[in-house]
Design goal:
335 residues, Growth Hormone, Chain: A, 15 helices, 81% helix
Length: 335
């Protein structure tokens, strides 16, 4: 929740050009934690018999992030916390700032009174196709990754017998994810958006997922699953997530605050739940068709569901990129 709150504040205080350069850098710096933490803070390296103490250490680190967020808001100069606003709102502010109050009608003034609230978020999202599109992309990614993650974790569980060895293997997976994400940013993957546009940046992730689906279908082994997860998470952190965050910028303050928290927290969690419910069908297939046929059938069904969602993802990405570009070109807001 702290991460989602942080990004709500950042997207509300960043202009589009700054976001193109800065958001990937923020994610890259975040990946240093993803590398250092799993590499050094493991039960095996610290001599613990289980990973339980690691949970306590992680909780203490999370507490520090709240303090850092407070310091960010307390000491960042106000002139660097500038929101994107459309030309209509600029005109409104200019009229009121210059004292030309007679030029501002009651209708104009009332149109600027936007409601910001917790439960207003659902209404805001489902009142605008643009916000629903962002929700769909985030939920689709989470569902597909939950399906892949389940296959991956089941393979890890059957390969490693002790909790320590499993935790060590998964820690290495987290480290490699951070390394891949960092290398992607260092090598300039974010230049895709700056040179080719928002649409090119948005479709990289679903295209990689399509490739991953076909590769895993024909090579369902642990090493393949590991690198699919590493690259899907790494590219998501380096390119997909910074790009999605920029989609919120050409919206009104009310839309940003109402929708982003719901999408990033509740939408993503609901998607994880939906993905987990799909994964629960594995036992049903195994019970009905036996271990070998049931697992293969489950693999085929889940990958087919993932493929269908990703195809829809491509069409939604095209719509979002078009609306985003139109808003910036017209110096306006989408919703």
């Amino acid at each position: 929740m702290l991460v989602a709150l942080f990004w709500v504040i950042v997207t509300d205080t960043t202009l589009p050009e700054s976001a193109k350069r800065g958001f990937p850098l923020i994610y890259m710096l975040g990946q240093f934690g993803n590398i250092v933490g799993p590499f050094f803070i493991t039960a095996e390296k610290l001599g613990f018999k289980t990973s339980a103490p690691i949970v306590g250490i992680s909780g203490a680190i999370m507490f520090l992030t709240g303090i850092l967020l407070w310091l960010f808001m307390r000491f960042t100069p106000k002139d660097q916390l500038i929101s994107y606003i459309g030309k209509d709102e600029k005109n409104f502010l200019e009229k009121t700032a210059t004292g030309e109050k007679e030029l501002v009608s009651k209708k104009d003034a009332s149109s600027k009174k936007e409601v910001v609230g917790f439960f207003q978020g659902i209404k805001t999202i489902f009142s605008h196709g643009y916000l629903m599109g962002i929700l769909f992309i985030i939920m689709t990614y989470e569902i597909v990754v939950m399906i892949f993650d389940y296959h991956f974790k089941m393979m890890v569980d059957s390969t490693f017998l002790t909790e320590i060895t499993k935790a060590s293997y998964l820690a290495n997976y987290a480290v490699w994810t951070g390394v891949v994400a960092t290398l992607c940013v260092v090598l300039g993957i974010n230049n895709i958006q700056r040179k080719l546009g928002m649409f090119a940046s948005l479709i990289i992730m679903p295209l990689l997922v399509i490739v991953a689906i076909f590769v895993f279908k024909f090579y369902p082994i642990l090493s393949v699953a590991l690198w699919i997860m590493v690259f899907s998470k790494g590219v998501n952190f380096a390119l997909n997530q910074p790009t999605i965050k920029q989609l919120y910028i050409p919206t009104t303050k009310a839309s940003r605050y109402n929708s982003q928290g719901w999408i990033e927290i509740f939408g993503a969690r609901f998607a994880k739940t939906a993905g987990s419910m799909v994964n629960l069908t594995r036992s049903m297939f195994v019970g009905k068709y036996g271990a070998l046929i049931g697992v293969n059938f489950f693999l085929t069904i889940t990958l087919s569901v993932s493929f269908g969602l990703v195809i829809a993802w491509l069409f939604v990405a095209f719509y979002l990129a078009k609306e985003h570009k139109k808003a910036l070109d017209d110096d306006s807001v989408v919703c």
